[in-house]
Amino acid sequence: MNAPVSIAARVEAYLAERRRAGFALTIAGTQLAAFARFADGLGHRGPLTLALAVQWACSSRDHRALTAARRIEVLRGFARYCQRDEPSTVIPPRRLFGPAHRRLRPHIYTEAEIARLIATTNKLHPPGGLRGASCAAIIGLMTASGLRISEATRLERADVDLEHGRLLIRQTKYGKSRWVPLHPTTVDALARYAARRDADSHAARRTAFFVFDYSRAASTHGVQYAFQFLRRAIGPARGGHPAPRLHDLRHTFVCRRLEQWYREGRDLDRHVLTLSTYVGHAKVTDTYWYVTATPELLALAAGRLSSADRSQP
Q1: Do 82 and 91 contact (CB within 8 A), yes or no?
Q2: Catalytic-labelled residue, pool 148, 231, 245, 256
Q3: Active-site residue flag, 123
Q4: 281 a catalytic residue
C-alpha cells in the first residue's frame, strides 16, 4: 500500500507545474511552502480540508482578516490542483475572510519627513560609513523617481548614466526593462554619492552602484532593516499600515506628481499614461491604484472642477 503523499511534496509538484507554464509564483511559493510546513508539522495526511485551510489562514502573528483572506486565495489554486488526484479535496470558498485585495491607505510623506529620514541616516552604524550614505542616496532616489526599492538596490554601475541623466531599470517586476530620466538635481546627488563611494578603495571595485561598508552590495533587506530605525524620526503612520514603509515613497511620488500637474493645468488623462510608463506599471489602472486622496490633491481637483463649472455657458 502506498504511503500518503505529504503536503510538502504536493506543493513542490504544484509549483513546478505552474512555473513550467511561465508563472513565477514568488510570493505564492513562499506562502505555500509555509503552509506545507504547517500542515506536515501537524502530521496531516490525506486530502486538504477546509478545517486545515482555516487553521493555517488564521495562524498568522498579526491575526488580521486581510492576511487570512490572502492565504485562502493562495490555497484555492493549490486545492484545485490537488482535486485532480484527490476528488475529496475541499477548495476553500472565495472571500471566506473577505476580499483579499483591500487597499490600505499609504503614508504620504511630507517634505519635512523625507528630510528627517535622510538626515537620520548619519546615525546609522558605522558612523560616517557607506551604509548611511547609501541609505540616504537610495531614499532620495526613490523620492525623486518613484523607483521600487528592489529596482534601486539592483542598480549596477553600468545602469546609471549620469552623463545623460538616466537610469536603466533591467527586467523589473513585469519582466520589462525601461529607461528612467532623472532631474538634474537628482543626477548631482547621485554623482556626489558616487564620489563618496569610490573614495573607499574596496567599494570602488564593486559593480553594484550602491555599496555598504566592507564592500557589501546594498540589498533590499539591508535597506529595509535600516529603515526600521530611520522611520522613528517621523513618528506614527498616518495611513492604514502599522508604520510608515519604504514603499510609501513610491505612493508619495505619484501623488506629488499629480498635484504638480493639477497646479500646472496639465491634461491628467494624457499625462497619467506617461507616469504609468515612467514608474514601470503594466497597466494605467495600476497607477490609479497608487493615487491617494490627500487634502492637497482633493483641493486642487475641486478647484479645477469649480473652474470648469464656471466656464460652462
Answers
A1: no
A2: 148
A3: no
A4: yes
